[in-house]
Design a protein that fits this description.
Blueprint lengths: L55 E11 L6 E12 L3 E7 L4 E9 L2 E4 L1 E5 L3 E10 L2 E12 L6 E7 L2 E7 L20 E7 L5 E4 L3 E2 L9 E4 L12 E4 L2 E4 L9 E5 L8 H18 L8 E6 L6 E2 L4 E5 H4 L7 H17 L7 E2 L6 H18 L5 H16 L14 H6 L3 H18 L1 H15 L3 E2 L1 H12 L3 H10 L4 E8 L7 E8 L15 E8 L4 E8 L3 E5 L8 E3 L9 E3 L2 H8 L8 H16 L5 H11 L7 H17 L5 H12 L15 H16 L4 H20 L9 H12 L7 H11 L6 H11 L8 H6 L11 H5 L8 H20 L17 H12 L9 H21 L1 H9 L2
Parallel strand pairs: 1-11, 17-18, 18-20, 21-22, 23-29
Antiparallel strand pairs: 1-2, 2-8, 3-7, 4-5, 4-8, 6-7, 9-10, 10-15, 11-14, 12-15, 13-14, 16-17, 19-20, 23-24, 24-27, 25-26, 25-28
Helix pairs in contact: 1-3, 1-4, 3-4, 4-7, 5-7, 5-12, 7-8, 7-10, 8-9, 12-13, 12-14, 13-14, 14-16, 15-26, 16-17, 16-18, 17-18, 18-20, 19-20, 24-25
Length: about 900
């Protein structure tokens, strides 16, 4: 599953779940009409988020569903072939928000009724009057359900006046669609049949096959799948446009499906997916493992995409890319396609055994997504984006509330929380570090062996690490353990040691990196694979070793004392580093030109880490940003890191000094001011992205009148064009549309602000493609006025926006000056309606709405709000609340500690 790259990413996985109708454990049995009334022993049904044992294991499902997307109610029958390990009168499985109307078991020539008991968390227990004997048996369960209006389980969405049905089952929502053994180690073969209204199409994981002669009209029968877990089963029903790839584009049949009228937007995906698939097949050394490949664009979808075997589902803006789409939209689509296709091997062919190992799916798919982009789109410098991704993982990892990549799973909240930056960004960065240490060939060899050994089955972390160790001959499991099984990032202190009569060496020590005032616990020393680069006056050298223990002295292969050192060559290691002031100055100034591109990008992030930990002051940090931006040809990703640094300083600016900050930002960006004179963007894709980044920084951070006035003018042109003819091409460069719309929204009070808001709101319905629609929604999130921001948020409640649009609208909303208070007040006033609209399961993630506060008063508001609801707190909320409160505390400490120095920096001419 690909997360949306938005500020409140955890929310994307959880929008709009159906409310559970489960009864309490130990409740009276809810037997089907006419069931045997003999006495049954009293049973207690454990919660559905507790892991099932292996006493009853499924091997094959036959799922028969009657679905009409226009009707919120559906029905079905599921027949499950199981193996009973030992005689039992109770079969535990899952069903949530379903009504079981009949349940029975067959073994041999015997058929017995089963009495269903519902429990918390989607638990279902089927009880028999006599024990089922050990051996094979078949369960048959008839049930009724309701199509959710959210984005989980089996749900429906309306587009263009027509209704469609879709599924999203990862991680725990298959149980809300049909009774099943809803956990990843219960893989089985699937036979799916769908009864839909005549004229609608139905798609599932396997190819559709001809129904038997005389079958009812509207019956869709699909071939049996290879073994799959419940969370990878998928379904779509509706009047889809179907675009088939040309013969030979892929080894198996390949299609892109959209809601009616959007099939013309499938060209990009039809061209890009075969390239990524061919590259992945070559890398894995085995063909794509399923019989067909469908990519389905869903108009209301919480995640970025979902790796259902043979039927990958996407948010529309991640798949349907118009010819004139912005470069960034095309790149995100390519990354998302590569990510989901990588899952076909890592996750689908070989599946994690339990959710504590979700990193085996998501970290590896993120890792492969990066490798694919480096191979297929090298001109975009994707290797530098990987450095920024590593920094994002380290940012999440710096908190005292950070969790380990592999954590114990005790509740459903733990499962949902595992889909976060630690799993995706840190996990992928650790894999890149291991690859740099053992070598690309060894990692590839190990992965291929791992997949071959566990094809169609389940695996755990130890299986992968053992395969990598066998392939490389190195102690991979020992080295990886510290990074996988404990939270935190190593901070390695590095000093050059040159003593008479001894080889030059590096004096090393390590501890857990912590931000200023953090209460993060100490960590067991890591075994850190390190590569360093240094200059000894004659040459630039590179050396690699494993640094284990709290401290060590590492001799160098030179007889001359180094003059400088880069402690993380090519930024492939997952660790932060610290140098003394003199060596740090050499890297920032004199030696910067000798660093590689990844090292230059990482240098900006390392300086930010040193600042937030209190190791360097705001004066040094601010001057460093200015120095790093001084090169008019600085790389896109270096400038991106500098811009992030400016945004950090903006948050820390003392009251009354904002004008000084704007002037400082203009000074930092001054070497790139020529971009303000451009009326068109460069033809070079990378340079275009660089120019858009700079224009955005001048508009939003430096608040350049040049960009703001241009944005207001060009936004009126865009809105006029949509009013005149929504089907016509927009009058300005596609890469500038989103920039200007957002800059115009954030421009500040003018007499026509309310009218501009209304025009943008009305334009959403006129947008001709999903990418255009997203740009308009993001722009609405740019209005900060107390009278307009709530109106934007209200669109989530009145049906104007879909449940999937919440993170798009609120991206960064709380971090803008003056916006944190207004957005929090809206949440407090609308909490019940908000949760009701977006779904109960979003509640654990609501604390992230308070991330914009940076003072004790704001913290107190967040604490008080959730304390009043402590008795109703859902699983998972406590950890997310701890993350938010720690973020507020860290911001407040940093702001207080640097108030005086910050004021002096901003007053310097």
């Amino acid at each position: 599953m690909r997360r949306q790259p938005l500020a409140l990413a955890p929310l994307l996985l959880l929008a709009a779940a159906a409310a559970s109708c489960a009864s309490a454990p130990g409740a009276a049995p809810t037997g089907p009409p006419g069931a045997d009334k003999r006495a049954l022993r009293e049973v207690t049904v454990p919660p559905g988020d507790q892991r099932l044992g292996r006493d009853v294991v499924p091997s094959r499902y036959t799922l028969d569903l009657v679905v009409d997307p226009a009707n919120p109610h559906y029905s079905g029958t599921v027949t499950i072939d199981v193996e009973v390990a030992a005689a039992t009168d109770l079969v535990r499985l899952h069903a949530d928000a379903l009504v079981v109307t009949h349940a029975a078991a067959r073994y041999g020539a015997t058929e017995v009724d089963l009495v269903p008991h519902l429990g918390e968390g989607g638990a279902l227990a089927l009880q028999s009057y006599e024990p089922l004997p050990a051996g094979p048996a078949t369960l048959e369960i008839r049930f009724e359900g309701t199509l959710s209006d959210g984005t989980e389980g089996l749900y429906r969405a309306q587009d263009g006046g027509a209704w469609y049905a879709f599924t999203q089952f990862e991680p725990l929502e298959a149980r809300s669609a049909f009774p099943c053994f809803d956990q990843p180690d219960m893989k089985a073969r699937w036979n799916v049949r769908v009864h839909a209204p005549v004229g609608l199409l139905a798609v599932s994981n396997a190819p559709e096959i001809a129904p038997a002669d005389g079958a009812e009209p509207g019956l869709h029968v699909f071939a049996e799948t290879r073994p799959l877990p419940t969370y990878l089963i998928a379904l779509g029903v509706g009047a889809f446009d179907v675009r088939e790839a040309p013969a030979g584009a892929t080894r198996v049949p390949f299609r892109v499906l959209t809601v009616a009228g959007k099939g013309a937007l499938a060209d990009f995906a039809l061209a890009q997916a075969p390239k990524a698939l061919a590259w992945l097949e070559a890398w894995f050394g085995t063909p794509y493992p399923f019989e067909k490949l469908d990519l389905l664009a869903v108009p209301n979808f919480a995640a970025g995409a979902m790796e259902n075997a043979g039927l990958i589902t996407f948010r529309e803006e991640g798949l349907l890319i118009p010819k004139d789409a912005p470069i960034q939209a095309r790149l995100w689509s390519e990354e998302t396609i590569a990510h989901e296709l990588a899952h076909m091997w890592f996750g689908d062919l070989v599946t994690l055994a339990w959710w504590n190992d979700i990193w085996l799916n998501e970290a590896f798919a993120t890792f492969m997504e990066g490798k694919a982009m480096v191979a297929l789109e090298p001109e975009g410098e994707p290797e530098l984006e990987l450095v920024r991704e590593r920094a994002r993982g380290m940012g999440a990892d710096a908190r005292a509330a950070a969790r380990a990549i592999r954590q114990k799973i005790e509740t459903a909240g733990d499962v949902y929380n595992a889909f976060d930056g630690i799993t995706y960004a840190k996990g992928a960065a650790v894999l890149r570090m291991l690859e740099a240490w053992i070598g690309e060939d060894a990692l590839q060899k190990g992965v291929r062996a791992y997949l071959a050994a566990h094809t169609d089955g389940n695996a755990v972390t130890a299986d992968l690490l053992a395969a990598l160790g066998d392939a490389s001959g190195k102690p991979v499991a020992d080295v990886a353990a510290g990074f996988l099984d404990q939270a935190g990032t190593p901070l390695v202190d590095v000093a050059i040691q040159c003593k008479p009569g001894q080889k030059p060496a590096l004096a090393l020590s390590q501890k857990r990196y912590a931000q200023l005032g953090s209460e993060a616990t100490a960590a067991t020393p890591w075994q850190v694979p390190m590569c360093v680069r240094y200059g000894d006056g004659r040459a630039t050298r590179r050396e690699c070793f494993v640094f284990a223990g709290a401290s060590a002295v590492q001799p160098l292969a030179t007889d001359k004392c180094p003059t400088w050192v880069q402690p993380n060559a090519d930024a492939r290691g997952y660790y932060r580093w610290r140098l003394d002031e003199m060596l740090l100055k050499k890297l920032v100034a004199g030696q910067r030109a000798l660093l590689t591109g990844p090292e230059r990008v990482a240098l900006v992030d390392e300086l930010a880490a040193l600042f937030t930990s209190g190791d360097i002051g705001v004066g040094v940090y601010a001057r460093s940003l200015q120095g790093l931006a001084a090169d008019p040809k600085a790389e896109l990703y270096v400038l991106g890191a500098v811009v992030d640094g400016l945004k950090l300083l903006e948050r820390l600016t003392p009251e009354g000094h904002m004008d000084g900050f704007r002037a400082f930002a203009r000074k930092v960006l001054a070497p790139h001011a020529k971009v303000l004179k451009r009326t068109t963007l460069s033809a070079d894709p990378l340079e275009r992205r660089r120019e858009v980044l700079l224009l955005s920084a001048f508009a939003e951070i430096a608040q350049s009148d040049v960009v703001t006035e241009r944005a207001l003018t060009e936004t009126e042109r865009v809105l006029d064009a949509l009013d005149a003819d929504p089907t016509a091409p927009l009058p300005i460069d596609a890469d500038l549309v989103g920039l200007y719309l957002h800059a115009a929204a954030a421009a500040g009070p003018t007499k026509s602000r309310a009218a501009l808001w209304q025009r943008m709101r009305d334009a959403i319905a006129k947008a001709q493609d999903p990418v255009q629609r997203v740009m308009l929604i993001r722009a609405l999130g740019g209005f900060s006025e107390p009278e307009l921001m709530p109106r934007s948020l209200d669109l989530l409640l009145d049906g104007t926006l879909r449940t999937q649009d919440f993170p798009t609208l609120t991206r960064g909303i709380a971090y803008r000056p003056g916006a944190a208070e207004a957005s929090w007040e809206w949440l407090v006033a609308h909490y019940d309606a908000f949760v009701s609209r977006l779904g109960d399961k979003i509640a654990p993630y609501v604390p992230y709405m308070g991330m914009g506060f940076c003072d004790a008063a704001g913290r107190d508001k967040v604490v008080a709000f959730f304390a009043a609801r402590a008795d109703k707190a859902p699983p998972g909320l406590a950890r997310n609340l701890a993350v938010v409160l720690e973020s507020i505390d860290q911001c407040a400490r940093l702001k207080d500690a640097n108030a005086g120095p910050m004021a002096r920096v901003l007053s310097t001419k």
